[in-house]
Design goal:
By secondary structure, the chain is an alpha/beta fold. The protein is built from 10 helices and 7 strands. It has a domain of about 180 residues: 3-Layer(aba) Sandwich (Rossmann fold). Strands 3-2-1-4-5-7-6 form a 7-stranded mixed beta sheet. Helix 3 links the parallel strand 1 and strand 2. Helix 6 crosses helix 10. The protein is globular.
């Protein structure tokens, strides 16, 4: 994407991972996010539509304009929503930094897992603020890799996670931007800001979370940077493999995995 890159890539495997993540975290991240009938909502950086389906289904009488810089992602998002019976969405290829909409075109903005990939999130927030109506709301959800804790502890698992962090930072992103949601919204001039941490706490006995988040979301994300991390000399393949093994270990019966997202709502 312009002014940043998507470190996880656009493979079919990544699309599956995003869908697993969205399905696992619906109640945690989307609770309370409902828009009234007739509301015009912008979802920038919609990717392959993993969040779109939940959003649009929860507010069937609002209309969602969903944009992404990737034509392939937009095509997949439109296909998935239509197959799900969703009809209150419109899809458009667009750059978050130069949105093709008039000032104050939208009642609400919903942006999820996007700012972390941008070199200039402040400029992105200003762009979104421009197209938001006065009094309208913006919802921002971001994760924070610095909030990752698990049992059993593993130095090699931490090294594998650090590879993903370093690669994303090298591409201009910030995988620890969750802790910055409040200051970023404040700096952009939004008002009535409220940010709440949303912790995933997955014990191994909770098979839904241990499988859906620990294994299929977080560990799969780290596994996805294996080749690049090794080729750039950040880690040797044996150490990376042991790190992934230990992350999977946290999903076993006596394992524990914690990760925190931050959800902010503010107004123009």
């Amino acid at each position: 994407m312009k002014n940043g890159s998507y470190v996880h890539g656009y493979s079919g495997r990544e699309a599956v991972r995003l869908a697993d993540q969205a399905n696992t975290l619906v109640s945690l991240l989307h609770k309370g996010t409902v828009y009234p009938a007739g509301a015009q909502v912008l979802e920038p950086g919609c990717g392959t539509g993993s969040q779109t389906i939940t959003l649009a289904a929860a507010s069937p009488h609002a209309h969602f304009t969903c944009t992404d810089i990737s034509p392939a992602s937009i095509g997949e998002a439109e296909k998935k929503t239509r197959e799900s019976g969703i009809r209150n969405t419109t899809f458009q290829v667009a750059d978050i930094f130069s949105l093709p909409f008039e000032d104050e075109s939208f009642d609400h903005v919903f942006v999820c897992f996007v700012l972390e990939h941008l070199k200039d999130p402040a400029a992105a927030l200003q762009s979104l603020k421009r197209v938001l109506k006065k009094g309208g709301s913006i919802t921002v959800i971001e994760g924070d890799h610095g909030s990752t804790f698990f049992y059993p502890q593993s130095t090699e698992a931490q090294k594998a996670i650090a590879c993903q962090v370093r690669l994303q930072e090298a591409m201009g992103g910030n995988p620890q931007i969750g802790r910055e949601v409040y200051p970023r919204l404040l700096g952009a001039g939004f008002k009535r800001i409220r940010v709440r941490p949303k912790m995933v706490y997955a014990e191994g006995r909770d098979k839904g979370l241990a499988e859906g988040f620990t294994r299929k979301t977080f560990t799969a994300m780290i596994e996805g940077v294996r080749d690049q991390a090794v080729s750039e000399g950040l880690i040797d393949p044996q150490s990376f493999g042991r790190g992934i093994r230990d992350l999977h270990r946290a999903a076993e019966e006596d394992g524990v995995f914690c990760y925190t997202f931050f959800k902010g709502v503010a107004y123009k």
